[in-house]
Amino acid sequence: MGKNVLSALLALSLASTLAGCGRASSGNGDWPSYGRTADEQRFSPLNQIDLDTVTRLGLAWYADVDTDRGQEGTPLVADGAIYTSTAWSKVFAFDAVTGAKKWQYDPKVPGQKAFQICCDVVNRGIALWKDKVIVGTLDGRLVGINRTSGNPDWTVQTTPVDEPYSITGAPRIAHGLVIIGNAGSDYGVRGFVSAYNPDTGKLVWRFYLTPRPDGKADGAASDDVMKSLVEGTWSDGAWKITGGGGSPWDAITYDPQTELIYIGTGNPVVWNDRLRTQNKGDNLFVNSIVALHAKTGKYAWHYQTTPRDAWDYDAVQHLIVADIPLRGSQRHVVMQASKNGFFYVLDAIDGKLISAKNYVPVTWASGIDMTTGRPIETPEARFTETGRVALLAPASAHSWQPMSYSPETGLVYLPAISNSRVFGDVDELDYVDGAKNMAVNINYSVPGPHGTKEKQGPAVPSSRTELIAWDPIKQAARWRVPTATWPGGTLTTAGKLVFQASGRHFIAYDAASGKAAWDYDLGAPAIGSPITYEIGRTQYVALLVGFGGSGGFGGSEPRRQGRLMVFKIDGNAKAPAYPEYTPPPLLDVAKAEPSSGDADHGATLYSRYCVTCHLGGVFLPNLARSPVIMRKDALNSVLLDGALAPSGMASFKQYFKPADVEDLRAFLLWRAKDGEIRVKKQGGHG
Questions:
Q1: What does DSSP assign to residue 661?
Q2: Residue 144, Cα to own-chain centre: how many angstroms?
Q3: Contact in structure between 343 and 398 (CB atoms under 8 Å)
Q4: What would the pLDDT profile of 287-335 be if each residue is shown by its tens digit?
Q5: pLDDT for residue 535
Q6: Catalytic member of 68, 139, 255, 312
Q7: Which of 114, 500, 524, 595 is 20 to 30 A away from residue 54, measured at CA?
Q8: How far apart are alpha carbons 165 and 116 in whole angstroms?
Q9: Domain boundaries in the chain?
Q10: How distant is the alpha carbon of residue 383 from its chain centre?
Q11: Is the pLDDT of residue 117 over 90?
Q12: Strands 389-392, 420-423: pairing kind
């Protein structure tokens, strides 16, 4: 690509972002929106920090925040200030040069809301509009915060308050509107995306991603396409009780060139397609990339990555818009590394599939049919018809961690995970208040004699995680480097560098070769995405540190206080070390109140309701070491009475009867006595 063409593209991209952001900018030095520019390439033209100078990179300043859960936020920088969202939907503002705190905002989300959130109480980002910082909250609100005072100018409830919706993703500004999605597909909701006036918080349009179970119109921008295209792809089944899912919980990208918004949609409810819609229909618009007209919310086109999904292969992953050379001419495209393991390149104007190739090992499909655009499923993939099978896991391939694209190298820098999970059919689903146990087709086995036989399956291979430099033209990896178990998002710069957090290490790679050029020990793992900005001719790199999310639940890392860390050349600040983690002591089970419960039934309950969050027993408590299991009334107070609801452990009384609680206690006491002995010998945390 010639220098003149590149310069023109960068100028156009920057101008588009500033037009969409609705505020003055100091130019290339700011990071004013989630992906820096509207196309969400996460590429910065700053080059003061390059392959030669990156070795001198040191800490300029740090600031601790008041939440110790997962920190997934992408900070924004404008007019000398840096803004970041943290866990529990809180927002902080700091001086971007000194780190002095300007203000903090707490939306005071009720602690029990954590019960209705799939993957920790995280928030991935905010939006800037004129004099406002806009954030979505875990309980479904959208809040316009005054950038000067830190006080809310307006608040609007974007989701029904009596349903298990949440917001963890970042709002986007498009065509003078603030666009927000929602999460909740695993809890039984109907996904939709909404546009609001960013000055007032007034709703402008709404688009539903799945049909209304009763077939009635919504009075929304999606009404016409629901009747003409979507409803016929859904048969009768369990979705009519729960809602179809398809929640747009992360990816939203605005393209000023086409004036379209590209939306990535989530998995259907329920996962099991036999129970959901009797193995019939593609189930639009779940697992899809949907293009809408930004001004009106009207449908433009869609591409479904995984028709009739049965494996939780959301298509909500980061969407990048770029111009790439294909067959001798520039092509305006949308790119996604989907959770199903395939990297897609689509025409940004009409959604036509240009190319698709798997970037990690894939067992559920052998490829993509370029004539129909549909996956070529392997014979064993439909486990409801063929029986238990190990396939690409729901937490595999690529998730929310943003990838980046360099127009200089022509490569996409992609965090990836390869592992598998055993899927198996179930006879029925339990519904409580119109929801739940959607994911019981995933295999979880409990060790020891009280393991649940129906949940046991073939051994799951150990996972592999890596950073991939992917060529979207050749649909091939240029290089791959191993990373930590749950890697962070990426940033690429004109300094020929790629930045990424890998466990406790913040690493700068040579963008061309993948060779590590700089490595900084953060003291604690980070999973968020770095940014870079420039003030007073000094380039900075910033990253929010703090482990959590779905990777934290089953991991061995403890919760750490969130920390914003900012680096510059020759920075010499020192951050205090995090305290060492000491696991809780083993319980003296001989002193426990004896239990008459059924431990085998308790193992089933543990596998169904507890293991997802408490498997690792470090980030969230190891139940076999929790003193509450020593007494019947203590465990009842937590599970039935909600004694710990303010801190996120809501009551389970809609799932557990008193006898069930005692069965669970019997299993946990067994595990505390016998299971922990085995775990200790194996060197694990339990």
A1: H
A2: 23
A3: no
A4: 999 999 999 999 999 999 999 999 999 999 999 999 999 988 999 999 9
A5: 97
A6: 312
A7: 524
A8: 7
A9: 3-569, 589-682
A10: 26
A11: no
A12: antiparallel
**Superfamily for the 589-682 domain:** Cytochrome c-like domain (1.10.760.10)
Q: Rounded to two decimals, what is the model's pTM? A: 0.90
Local structure of 156: helix, strand or coil: strand
Omega before residue 285 within 30° of 0, cis: yes
The per-residue pLDDT of the chain, averaged, comes to 88
Amino acid present at 181: G
Residue type, 130: K
> What residue type is assigned to position 300 of the chain?
A
> Among 469, 344, 356, which Cα is nearest to 409's?
469
The CATH classification number of 3-569 equals: 2.140.10.10
CA distance 26 to 415: 31
H helices, E strands: number in the chain = 11, 37
For 230, the token pair is: 């979507």
Query: What is the spatial distance between Cα 250 and Cα 601, in angstroms, rounded to a whole number?
Result: 37
CA distance 421 to 76: 37
Specify the DSSP element, H or E, that contains 212. none
Same fold, 3-569 and 589-682: no
List, in sequence order, every beta strand (DSSP E) within 33-140. 43-44, 57-64, 76-78, 81-85, 91-95, 101-105, 127-129, 132-136
> What pLDDT is recorded for position 27?
61
Catalytic residue status for 570: no
Separation between Cα atoms, residue 448 and residue 452, nearest integer Å: 9
Give the CA count within 13 Å in the CB-facing half-sphere of 277: 24
